[in-house]
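User: Let's play a game. I give you a shape written as tokens, and you guess the letters that built it. Ready? Here's round one.
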């Protein structure tokens, strides 16, 4: 007989820990190879073989590290919000684990975007930091990652912590369109979008190609780190469950 809840059945099959462990074990070597290959090619073409900018000169090469980090910061928060939604609606422990694993990774990508942006901004704007709409909204994103991590560690009850953190992630998703369109909605020092435009990219293909290769490298790295953290967390929980079972059996 067909399942009365096809979506729930699909997520139940996808979220099976044993199936996830098998799938992630198969994916990991491929993601590592993609990460290493794309980082090698992207860094070579971006930092050495690509042309310099007629205004920024060699300073523009920071773009190949900064821009993918900013993209991954937003992608990480999207993953966080989706994991939180699935965890709240379908009560899947694996979705909750995915959210907990994503938050520190997203915080690191966001910090990297802020740090490299400051390095890029100093020679370009003459200052390390301005309260620019794009920069300020990305800083808020960084604090939201930290807030999610803090909430998850504020409760002894993991289920309660997961629900509270998931709610924060879902509500906080409003920051993503603000980051995306801040350069269009307000007057900012930050340059407008030059890659993802309806009219097509305005970047020179010799610059766009290594940028996209670096973006693939960052996404593959995100996948490696996420799967690794999730596998470690599943192992930790399994060990804790075995220890509790043994302690219960030994109690007279």
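Assistant: Ready! My guess for every position:
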């Amino acid at each position: 007989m067909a399942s009365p809840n096809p979506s729930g059945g699909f997520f139940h099959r996808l979220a099976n820990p044993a199936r996830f462990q098998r799938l992630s074990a198969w994916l990991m070597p491929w993601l590592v190879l993609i990460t290493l290959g794309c980082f090698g090619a992207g860094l070579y073409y971006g930092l050495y073989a690509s042309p310099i900018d007629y205004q920024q000169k060699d300073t523009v090469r920071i773009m190949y590290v900064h821009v993918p980090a900013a993209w991954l910061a937003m992608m990480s928060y999207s993953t966080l919000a989706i994991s939180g939604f699935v965890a709240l609606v379908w009560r899947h422990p694996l979705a909750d684990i995915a959210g907990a694993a994503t938050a520190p990774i997203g915080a690191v990508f966001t910090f990297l975007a802020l740090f490299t942006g400051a390095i890029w901004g100093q020679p370009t704007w003459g200052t390390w930091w301005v309260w620019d709409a794009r920069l300020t909204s990305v800083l808020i994103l960084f604090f939201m990652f930290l807030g999610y991590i803090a909430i998850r560690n504020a409760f002894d009850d993991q289920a309660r912590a997961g629900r509270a953190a998931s709610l924060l992630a879902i509500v906080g998703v409003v920051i993503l369109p603000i980051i995306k369109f801040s350069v269009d909605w307000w007057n900012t020092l930050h340059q407008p979008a030059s890659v993802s435009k309806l009219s097509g990219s305005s970047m020179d293909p010799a610059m766009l190609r290594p940028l996209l290769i670096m973006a693939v490298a960052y996404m593959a790295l995100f996948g490696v780190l996420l799967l690794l953290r999730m596998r470690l967390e599943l192992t930790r929980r399994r060990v804790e469950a075995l220890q509790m079972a043994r302690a219960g059996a030994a109690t007279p």
